[in-house]
Amino acid sequence: MKYIIGIGGVTNGGKTTLTNKLIKTLPNCCVVHQDDFYKKPDQIEVGEDGFRQWDVITALDMEAMTNTIKGWMENPVKFARSHGVTLSSASNVANPDEQTHILIVEGFLLYNYSNLLEVFDKCYYISIPFEECKRRRSTRQYTVPDPPGLFDGHVWPMYLKHRREMEDSGLYIEYLDGLKSKEEIYNQVYEDVQNNLLNRL
Question: Fewer C-beta within 10 Å: the chain N or C terminus?
C-alpha cells in the first residue's frame, strides 16, 4: 500500500520538525522537501513590492517536484533505496511491494499547485499567528538573508493570499495549531496516520 501525506503550512510553522519526527517512526517512509526545488536566486523575479518573489509558486520548479513524487509513486522501493532509506524487514510479507510505503511531501505551497492536489491521501496544514511567525522567522539564518521589511511587505501577504487560494480549492485539509508543543503536534499526526492506515487494510 502507498500512502502520501502532505505537511503544508506557514513559513517557520514547524513543518520540517514534524516531518523529521515522523520519518523516524513511520515504516518505509520517504520525504520530498519543497524547499529543495527552489530555482537559482538569479531566476527569482523582483515583484512590484520591490522584493525578490521567493514566496510564490513560480520561484519553485514544481514540474521537477511533481516528477520526483511520481517517481516514488511508480516504484517506492527503488525510490527509498536510491535515497538511502532503510526498508523494514519483509519477513512477514513475501513481496516487498505489498508492504506499506509512505511518502511525506513537506512545503509551504503544497496545496497551491493543481497537478499535485490529487496525489495526497492526507493533507495537514500548520498555522501560527503573525507575531509568532515573525518572531520565529527573525531567528532563522537563511542562505539569502531576509532584507529589511520582507516579512511584513512580502512573506506574510503572500502567505495570506496563498492560504485563501488553498481554502478555495475544495481540498480537505486538517489544520494543526503550530503553537502547540512539537510533541503534541507529532502525537496528533502520528495517531491520525496510524488510524488512517489501519482503515485502509
Answer: C
